[in-house]
Here is the input.
Amino acid sequence: MSITDIRYMELGAYEEITYKFPTSTFVLTIQGDAGVMIDNKKYEVSHFYVLHGGKGSTLNIRTGAKGLQLYYLMYKANLPSGGRNDLRGIMERINPFQMIYGFTPDTPTILFGQLKRMHFLWDQKNPIQHFQTKSLFYAFVEQISSQIPRASNRYLGTMDQVSKVIEIVESSYTKPLTLHALAEMIGSSPRSLSRKFKQSTGYSPIDYLIQFRLFKAKEMLLQTDATLEEIAAGIGYPDGYYLGRMFKKHTGLSPLQFKEKTSMPLFWPDLTSGMARNDISRGGSGRYVYTDGENHYQYKHGGSINMNRQTRTGMLLSILLSLTLLLSACSTGAASNSSGDASGSNSTSSQTKTVTAENQSKTSETRTISTVKGDITIPAEPKRIVVDLYLGSLIALGIKPVGTPEMNLKNPYFIESLEGVENIGEYETISLEKVLELQPDLIVTGDPDLFESFSKIAPTLVVPYGQLKNTHEEIAYFGEVLNKEKESEAWLADYDARIADAQKRVGEAIDPAAEVSVMQFYDKGPLAFGDNFGRGGQAVYSALGLNPPADKKEILMKDQLVEVSAEAIPEFAGDYIILTADNLTVEELKAKPVWSSLDAVKNDRVFIWSPDRSWYFDPIATLDQTEELAAWFTKISEQK
Here is the structure.
């Protein structure tokens, strides 16, 4: 397959042209109207229309009063020499590259976007861009070929609209899609589309989009070594953190846990076929069965039994740890015995015994702690702690760990306290080799599923996220466990005094009944947050005790994170908005559709901060955010 040319053409009113195709050619009209003939076949063309003719076909166009704007794409398709005889037989009987046809596409904007992009790349006259054009051409042809059967047997029933939406989602899931945009693409209203789609599939269109994106994420997790950031970019999510939270929310597993526990291919049911539209859980054939709306999968075993991926991972980890320890022992032994004479050897041996004895006396004091994983024994005063989720609490108590995930090292609220702390990887892809290298005497984690791996390295304290309900519980708990009770009492006393002052200032600045929204801006539609998901939620709702939008309080506090379509923004917007956004000002927000109509935006009651500040929700971050917001509420009150 090779592209020979891509061109854009504008024809005036009542203009006529005749052209003989030098190769197989697609024509996509995008505006205007015309009578078109390809050889002896006539088409009445208006607005978006797809036409195709083979090499030697004659195209005749007579435009109407609006003229006509169009793209045409010329290509050659040949079977390679020495190819399969059965394919040559099909080409001789029915050559699809010579067929003449025309139809109004179901999803014209997708075809237009694809061809416009191909035209731009083709005009670059660069081999790399031409290669990209060719790759896009296959997707363009696939999109057209999928619409030809429907074009020949079109009807306007509910299932036709549902099929269109499913196909749009499955072909454009990497792009910003909202309920309003989907409805517009198929010529329906958002309310009507949502009702019909739910009746037919059991899902809302946006729920279906979420499930399909997560399915694609699962495929990439199992089939590639892509990072969460790379996967998020490939499925239309803003970043790896958001993908991780959505994944955990809808599957009950983190992406890393899913990858470790799943080794079977996945199956996505075809809802565009009549047999499976009424329920996403019914689709499919074969041995892999979709079992519920959480995207869990079961495998129907045949005669053979496959080793579970988790078992293999655990076994490999054990081998890795054993091998590393052996190599470390060998290295130490080699270094100890490199003095070259008997007296040196004895001296080294004596020194090693002395150090060991000293270490034993220092670490002989231990404490037994009850955890969700049972009782564990930890050093009374651990010196080398690795921590993931609870870094802020340790810093508040004056404890500097030896290692923590990369995201923690960027925390602006106490970054000056992290000098010398090692990076152990991303939250979802923690490097066990790095943790082992740091030789911790205690590991603190919020993820129970990491216990088995971590506990092979050092005593592991598991505190599942959510077990400690608030800042007081969190600081007091770690103060007790890590023998820092005095430090925890002092820190909490200061915290309480500063929070009380912030509450007083805000109480004087705004109406007690005022509603405050915590959101993150995206062009496709924002995210709305509850009191336990960062973005300022802890500071706004827990520390300051402010009110979320009344009508949305239940869903926000239950789900903690809600995807909001553009048209639903007013429903989630309070009297004040705390908004996370990159490079956005209130003045720019006033120029954006929907946002510009909100009272909070009109009256400059929007606080905008960047993700690198709002993401964090540890006790130190929450305290600083609370004071920052209190100062802002006071400032805008004084400006009235």
User: Anything to note?
Assistant: The longest strand covers residues 58-76. The chain has 25 helices and 23 strands. The radius of gyration is 31 Å. Residues 309-336 form the longest helix (28 residues).
